[in-house]
Batch of 3 targets.
Target 1
Amino acid sequence: MEGKHSPKHAPPTRSSRRAERPERAEYRRAPVREREYDPSPEKMSRRNRPVWQLIIQDILLTGLVLCVFATFHHVIPRLTAKNVQMPTPSSVINTPAPAETPAPEDTAEPENTPEPTPEVIDNRTEWQKKFEEHFTDEVIVTENSYTSPNVSITMSTITIDDPSPTVCYVADIYIAQIENFQTYWANGQLSYYGEESSLSMAANSGAILSINGDYADNQRSGFLVRNGELYYSDQTTYDICVLYYDGTMETFSPSEYTVDDILAKTPYQVWKFGPQLLDEYGQPRQSYNTSDAISWENPRSGIGYFEPGHYCFITVDGRQSGYSRGLEIDRFAQLFADLGCTVAYNLDGGQSAVMTFNQQVYNQPYLGGRNSGDILLIRELPESTEGGEG
């Protein structure tokens, strides 16, 4: 029996092991297949270049590719779009655009070009605008009327049968401005007992319409203003009538005003005769600041006020049996109230009550009338007789 350590089972030596595995040793040492070698210059050059050069080369190639792409994708389409003609507003409505022509040397407007419309400026006064239906573009005169661009006067006759006939002459007046309403002194100036006929004063002053005034030629005191000029500035026991530059009119009893207060409001005319005829409601007063002789039936003259720019003159014939009796003061006041006046004032009367119109005595004065010291008048201003604002 073979033992564990018999020569048959002795461990092999190194040399014996090599001899026993010759084929294995030959397999391990089989030659490795070598790669094919390309000796081209390009590959030799690229292999020999540094890495940083290769990176730069790749970047440049990438940029070139991007430039070519941008050229075909952006630049060429934009250049093509510039040559495409877009539609104009005229082509939208199928109207061909007008051909451009060089501007002519002559700068004159074409014959068919309409002239520009000039701006219309209204130079009329406020009263002309307000009462335009009463004025006319030209002067028109009839037996009982006068109209122009600045003055409108309509004459009428009222007969009051109470208890016997009394004839009253009424002038309805519209004016363009306050200066169309003036006063005029006998002989052209204030003088003590200076006298002149109403018809002569009307002619000398250019009056279209006139009535006698307030017997101012016998006054040496009191409160007196004419056409904006102050003559006397004393408090008086008479009722006064004040016409202001704005065209308003007021009447006052002696206790209702002071001279300074009136002057502070710039009066245009102040008359002193009276009495005032209407109360603050435009109705006849309950009592009158005057004497009995003046209160009785008499020929009369008076002035009435409707609103600025609108007035009336009234002259009443009297003391003529069978024709005209005359009016008491309260009945005279009622006449103004019936006409719609808000203010009314009694002027001098009796034989002095004279009305002129168009250079003629319009009423039938008692005993033919008499000379007086002043008149109230309506007239055209010299520069406004052809129309427009004076």
Note: Residues 126-384 form one domain.
Target 2
Amino acid sequence: MKKIIIANFIIALLLTLSFNVKANEYNIVFASFFGNDHPNTKMLLKFKDKVETYSRRKFKVSIKANSELGGEEEIMDLVKKGEIQMALIGGLVKYDEPMLASFEQPFIIKDWDHARRVFLSKNIKQFEGDYSTKSGAIIKGIIVNGFRQISSSFKIDSLQDLQGVKMRTPFNDIFIQLFKALGTKPIPIPATEVYKSFENKIIDCQDNPFTLTNSMKWYEFNPYILETKHIFSPSFILVNKDWYEQLKGDNRKLFNQAIKEAVEYNWEMAEQEEHDSMNILKNKGVTIYPVSDSLKNEINKAIEPVYLWFDKEVPNAKEFRDYCQKLE
């Protein structure tokens, strides 16, 4: 750990010393739909601190979290058009490059170490397809949304308990296919409207990582969480392509270094945040329980058609499953 800190300090010093103080100033708007207390928002703040420090504030970053500039779809559109420079986006990137949908196949990521081996490897680039050409934005880093779990107002002992249940999903056909296969009635709703939807009894259940369930206070309606880890959801740091390509020399180097360190920080923090969120939820009276062997067998059988759907609809879906299996 000390070696990492020393190495980062040396890099920071070199970048700062080598930066041309006469360079143009760069104003960056970095938007996210995650809440102010979410670990991913802390990553945005880490990037702001790093890039402003390294550049002696030639780069100036304005953080717009908590859907201040709109939801996920809106901010993704803003960065693609160049109206803002950066955005933190989830699975919606697949609508520009379908290959990216393969990242959210169910039960392909086993644990945190496995997730690091998959998403932090240099080889992950081969599965990003031609995203920048199709979208006008560049993926500059993959960070953690986390392992998704199912929260509910009742205990789930078998798939029979889920039949016909109104399950909130994101606007993402991957989740719709998955929860249809499990027997629920999927209802796509933006994350910002989930709390109100619980209040109005539009939905019964939802699936998200512990951190989001805690920060958004959805446990007030769902005091049970089934620890399924059914999907590991990454998030993507998008940068407008035209804006990035006008960065030259030391400007680009220090920008890339700030991104790299913010990504490393996020992965270091995310696992601990998940553990802390679990404890907070338990202290608030939430029952968190594992999937039984019998339920696991039911789920595995039920989702077989989901993999067939992936192989039909998503380029390289099987190749990515094989890649993940190879890195277990």
Note: Confidence is low (pLDDT under 50) at residues 1-7, 9-23.
Target 3
Amino acid sequence: MAKKSGKEALSSAGPVTFGGFKVCFTSAAAPQWSADELVRAAVKHGYAGVELVAGAGGKHGAELGIKPDKLRSIREVFSSSGVGIACLATPVSFHAADPAARAAALKDLEQYVKIAEDLASPFVRVFGGDIPPEVEVAGAADYISDALADAAAFVEQSTTCLLVETFGTFRNSRFLREIIKQVYSPKLQALWNVPETVRGLEPVADTFDSLCDQIRHVHLADYEYFEERTAVAPAIFGQGFVPVAQAIEVLRAGDYKGYLAFDPAEIPEDSDVAVAEAMNLLKGMLEG
């Protein structure tokens, strides 16, 4: 049987998978690329999707205030090539102690949800954020849960779902699990940022055990330690201390079905090379 081209494979009945996993990259890997360029790179390197990171200066265009014709154009660029929009990653966070700040965040989120719906993105990423040091954790958990409950109620009739990323205070998976438990909505689930939970000294098996029923999307990146492990710096993917292969095996054993997203911690010097090398590494792990 002749090998399919990238575009033919992506346009077939289902998305490209390796070892049963779908792979995407985030636009943080190439914020200088337009939506067209992101799609061309996905097809070229065999990715099933792209995660669009909003509010970070990217050139893809899926931002607050986008015009309807531009939104339709972005959706068409992706759908015509069979590349999925894996997630719309927003900067919205609900950690602020000020209720007015949380209300403003909710208004922004409502706009992002409408954008995600129009783009046919299944997920919208939000942050719990870093709890202010002067606020007791239990009280912060209560007001963050209340804000996320309001957010979940807003998307109740939506085609998209909210994902809280394990980042900041929420790199502690038990804290995120408590928040999700308090909200108790199928419209609020988890995005597992593997390097962040590892930096929080959680073994990957423990994180998965804690959040296995809620994980819908996964971020992968790599770091290296320096100064006697008192500081970290982004590392070349696959050459740092993040146990990417172990996380994949944990997900495989747990029958995870979502995307694995290459999400570099800094903008690569050559985005095309970084995206290509990440795919080669992940494909080897997934099919090995």
Note: The chain has ten helices and ten strands.
